[in-house]
Amino acid sequence: MSEYPDIRLRKCTDPAAKLDWFEVTEDCSFHWGDLQTVIPKGFITDFASVPRWLWSLLPPHGKMANAAILHDYLYDYRIGEAQFGAQKARLLADLQFVFNCRQAGVGSVQVWVVFVVLRVFGGKWWVE
């Protein structure tokens, strides 16, 4: 088992998968505050869901890739919702993304642009 940010991936081989989907090839543990959980082998991610026309400004496969995988997992499984409620858990996931991006060397302007987009539009993905 690996530990975040060492996330092992491969291109998703499912014939129904979109071109930009990748899957985790080995369980990866991470600590999120007092919570510890595992991104399981087989989890599918598209990294940051950035429209292709914005990739030159916000590359989803760049330095923010691992933070985006963890963020996808936190959203997909609503990690922390039972402990903190939906709104706080979502905010914590978004702030964790900001922290992880900054740790990975993503520029502060890029990080805050993505954070604002997450706060404005991310609620739709939290509940679906």
Automatic annotation (TrEMBL):
This is DUF1353 domain-containing protein. It comes from Dyadobacter helix. InterPro entries: Phage_CGC-2007_Cje0229. It holds the Pfam family DUF1353.
